[in-house]
Amino acid sequence: MSAVGAQDPASWADDDDDAVVYTMRDLNQRTASIMSEVEKTGKPAFITRHGRFVAMITPLAPGQVESRVLAEMAREIASRAEDEPAAAVTTHLHWPSALPTGR
Q: Which residues, in sequence order, are bridge partners of residue 55?
């Protein structure tokens, strides 16, 4: 893990609004702990590769993704019910294309 001018982010964080900076190596070796920290603190983490910022991991608000998925599923069911009332109950729902499927 690295930060501007220090190895330990706790040593350089003067303000609670500071985000933590990790290298690609840190992310590769400690993905689970970094993700847990982002979720726990609610603060973004910046990722660097060869000293250049390449990505930002941003925490999601609790329920943010789930509520969007459920709303999209409800719209799809309603749309199918208008087109073919029986098909809305018997056909498989498809995840919205903008959301990852976990594959």
A: 47
Q: Residue 23: its pLDDT value, please?
A: 97
The structural architecture, per CATH, of the domain 9-57 is: 3-Layer(aba) Sandwich (3.40)
The two three-digit tokens of residue 23, written as one number: 């290298």
Q: Which of 11, 19, 67, 12 is nearest to 42 (CA)?
A: 19
CA dihedral 69, 75, 81, 82 (to 10 degrees): -160
Predicted structure pTM score: 0.51
Beta bridge partners of 46: 21, 56
- Which of the four pLDDT bands, split at 50, 70 and 90, describes residue 44? very high
